[in-house]
C-alpha cells in the first residue's frame, strides 16, 4: 500500500510540473508571453470567432491565435511566413 501511494504521489508531481511548463508550440503560456495583437486569424485574416472558439498556441514567447485547427497546422509548417505579419517591438 505504501509503495502505491508513493508512486501515485510521484506521478501527480510529474504531471503537475509538465502541465505548468510552457512549450514553444502549446496553448499554455506564462506571464512572460506577449499577447496576440490582432482580432483576426494570423493565417486567414478572418475574424477569430468566425469558426468558433479561437485556437491558441504560444510560439517562442508570443501568443498566436487562429480561426481553426487547419490554420494552426499551416502556421506550424511555415512559421516564419506568418511571424512577418506581427508588429516588431
Describe this structure in words.
By secondary structure, the chain is of the alpha+beta class. It has one domain. It contains 3 helices and 2 strands. It has helices at 2-20, 69-77, 79-83; strands at residues 55-59, 62-66. The protein has a two-stranded antiparallel ribbon with strand order 1-2. A hairpin with a 2-residue loop joins strand 1 and strand 2 (62-66). The longest helix has 19 residues, at 2-20. The chain is extended and about 55 Å long.
Number of domains: 1
Mean pLDDT over all positions: 80
What is the terminal separation in angstroms? 56 Å
Radius of gyration: 17 Å
Name the helix and strand elements from N-terminus to C-terminus, one letter apiece.
Answer: HEEHH
How would you classify the helix and strand content by structural class? alpha+beta
Across the major sheet, the strand order is 1-2
Q: How much helix is in the residues?
A: 25-40%
Which band does the percent of strand residues land in? 5-15%
Low-confidence stretches: 14-24
Question: What gross morphology would you assign?
Answer: extended
What is the strand tally? 2
How would a crystallographer describe the biggest sheet? Answer: 2 strands, antiparallel
Describe what is shown at a glance.
Helices cover 37% and strands 11% of the residues. It has 3 helices and 2 strands; from the N terminus they run αββαα.
